[in-house]
Amino acid sequence: MKTKTFTAVLCSIAMWQGTQAQQLLTWDEAYRQADVVIERLSLDQKISMMRGYDKFFLPGVPEAGIPYIFTSDATQGLRLNLNLPDPTMVRQIERSTAFPSPIMLAATFSSELAHRYARSVGEECRASGVEVLLGPGMNIYRNSQCSRNFEYFGEDPFLAARMVEAYVVGMQSTGTLACLKHFLANNTEWYRRRSNSIVDERAIHEIYTPAFVAGIEAGAASVMTAYNRLNGEWCGQSHYVITELLRNEFGFRGMVMSDWRSIYDWRKVVESGQNIDMPGEDYFYLTSDIRSLADCGQITEQQIEEMIRPTIATSIAFGLYDRILSGDKYRPELLDSLPAHAQTSYEVAAEGTVLLRNNGILPLRNTRCNILLTGRWLEELPRGGGAARVEGYDIVTPQAALSRLGNVTVSQKPSDEELRSADVVIITTGTYDTEGVERPFAMPKADERAVRRAVELNPNTIVIVNSGSGIDMTAWSDRCAALIYGWYPGQNGYDAIADIIAGRINPSGKLPMTIERRFADSPACGTMPRGASFYDRVRNEHFITPYDVAYDESVLVGYRWYEYNRIEPLFPFGYGLSYTSFAIDRPQLAAAGDLTDGDTVTVCVRLTNTGNIRGKEVVQLYAGEDRPTVVRPPKELKGIRKVELDPQQSTSVEFTLSKRDLAFWDEETRSWRTNPGDYTIYIGNSSADTACTLKLTVK
C-alpha cells in the first residue's frame, strides 16, 4: 500500500471556555475510514495491531501506511522516556516542566487552572512528538495509604469530574490525546495486579465512574483499564467493564488500552472490547497465543478486526497518522512557552497549598527574626515516584526558597538549644509516595520524632507537610504554630510556599480529601491482607494469591463516611484557611423551592470578604435528601465556585441544580432515580462548615 495521508475535515466538538478540542473527524466517518484501512491488512498485520510496540508505542503497520503512535507518562507533566529500547524512533526534548502533583491541582478547586495546567503539558508533548499522554489519572481517593493518590484528584467524584473535564479539553486542545486511567476501582497499590475490588453498582456509578464520564463527555480519545480485578474479573479483559459500562452505557467510542502487563487470557481480551495489549511484549502469565487461537478458530478474524477498529479510528479522527506522515510530528516552537508553563506551575502551587492551622504567626512579615530551617527535605525537591515522576529543570529546593525569608539558619540536626532559641522554626516533613506500594498512614519514625521534638521545644514551629495524601498528624497538629500542606509542589512550588509564609500570597487551597485522626477510622482500614508489608515492592507478583478488597462502605467514601458515622476527622474535606475572613449569608432560591422534571433551580448566596486582605474563597454547595429510601450520605458536593474579593467587597454567588443532581443509582431499575420529597441545600466553605441552608422540594 502506498503511503499517503488521511483526509481530515475540521468539525466542532466539545467546548470548554472557548477552547476547541482537536478531533478532526466525526466518529462515524473515522470508523468508515478505519474499515477501508483494515480491508488492506493481512491477518498477521491485523494481529500485530492488537499489541503495543517497543514499550511505549501504540501498534502500527508502517509498510501499510500506519505509523506507530508514541505515548508517554504522566498526568503531572511529560516524563521523558530516556530508556526506550529504540531511542531513534523519537526525537525528545531535553527538558520538561515538573508540575505540582494532581492532588495539589485538585486542592486549587479551580477548573481554569486545570485547563491551563493540562494545556501546558500538552504543548510539551507536541514539542516532543508525543501523541498520547497516559493521563489524567482519576482513581478516587478511598484509602490514605494508597501511594498513588498524589496522581489523582481526591475523594469526591464531583470535584474530580470538574477537574478532569477541564484537563481533557486543555490537553486535547494542543493536539495531544488524553488517556483516562485507570478504569476501574484501582484504589490500592499493594500487589495491584492481584487485588479484586468488590464494589456494588451504586458505588460504581455514584463514586468511581463520574470523573470518567466527565472525561468522556469532554471528548477524551482513549481510556486505560486498571490492573485490578473488579468483582472477580481483571479489568483489562472484562466485558462488563469495557463493553457494558464504558462502551454501551457511557458511550465511549475511542480506543481502550490495557495497563502495562495486565491481561491474562486472549479469548477474554478479544471478547471484552479491549483494543490494545500494552506494552505488547510476551510475558509468561499469558495463557494463550493469539496466532494459535486464530488458527484453530477460537478467535475469528472478524473479532480481531473489531478489536483493532477503535485504535485506527481514533488515530484517524484526531489526525495522528496525517501528522506523522506529513512531517508534522514535532512542534519545537512550542518550547517558547516554557516560561509560561513554569508560571502556571507556580500558580497551581500558590493556589493548591493548604493552610490547615495558623495561630497568628503567619504571615511571617518580620524579616529580622531568627528562623531555624530543618527537616526531611531541604536540598531535595519533594516529589512522588514511579511513572508519574517528572525530573523538571531549574529546580527550586525548599532550602533555596525558604532561605529567602530573611535571617535563616539551616540545620539538618539541630540541638535542643538551637530549637529553643530560634524565633521561628520551620520544619519540612512528609512521605515519599510511589506507585506499586502501600505506605503507612504514620510518617517514618524519625520524621515523626523530629516534628514532635520541634513543637515541644519551640511553640513557634511552622510545619510544612509534603505528601501525596493524608498522614497521621494527631499527636502534634494542634501544638504547632502553623501547619501547611504543601503536597508535591513541582519544580518551583516552594517559591509559592515561601511567598505564602511571607504574606506575598494569600493562601486559598482546600483539602480535596478528608484527613482522618487515625487510620482505624477509615473505611479502607483492613484493605491490605493479613501479613502484608508496607513498601512491599512488586516481586514475583504472579505467586501472590489474589485477594479481595471489600468496598463495604459502598457510596460512603471520604467525608460521606465520616459524616454518616459521626466520626470527627482531623481536617474535613474542603477545608483550608486564609489570611483574611469571609462570610457567606443570605441564601435564597431564585425561584420557588420546588423542582420538577426538566426544571432547574438557581441557588444564590452572598459572599463577603470581611477582612482587610484581598483573597480567594471556595464556596461549596452540598445537597442531601431528608428522608432517603436507601443509604445515602447526609450531604454530597454538587457545586463549587472560587471567587476573589477585595477587602469588604461582596458578591452574589450562584449555583444551578437539576433533579439529576439529586439522584442516586437505583440498582433495581439500573438507572438514576430522584425521589420526590424534601432536600436540604447546604452552602459553606468546607464539608464541616455549611451554616447556610435552604429547603428544596422535588415533585
Largest sheet descriptor: 6 strands, mixed
Radius of gyration: 25 Å
**Shape type:** globular
- Structural classification: alpha/beta
Overall mean pLDDT score? Answer: 93
| CATH homolog superfamily of the domain at 15-336 | Glycoside hydrolase, family 3, N-terminal domain
**Strands, total number:** 28
Give the C-level CATH assignment of the domain at 15-336: Alpha Beta
Distance between the termini: 63 Å
Uncertain spans, ≥5 residues at pLDDT below 50? 1-20
Just name the CATH architecture of the domain at 15-336. Alpha-Beta Barrel
- CATH overall fold name of the domain at 15-336: TIM Barrel
Tally of helical runs: 18
Descriptive report:
By secondary structure, this protein is an alpha/beta fold. Among the domains are: 15-336, Glycoside hydrolase, family 3, N-terminal domain (TIM Barrel, Alpha-Beta Barrel), CATH 3.20.20; 582-698, Immunoglobulin-like, CATH 2.60.40.10. Helix content is 25%, strand content 20%. It is built from 18 helices and 28 strands. Residues 1-20 have low confidence and may be disordered.
Can you give me a brief rundown of this structure?
The chain is of the alpha/beta class and 699 residues long. Among the domains are: 15-336, Glycoside hydrolase, family 3, N-terminal domain (TIM Barrel), CATH 3.20.20.300; 582-698, Immunoglobulin-like (Sandwich).
Provide tags for this entry.
single chain, 699 residues, TIM Barrel, Immunoglobulin-like, six-stranded mixed β-sheet, 20% strand, disordered N terminus
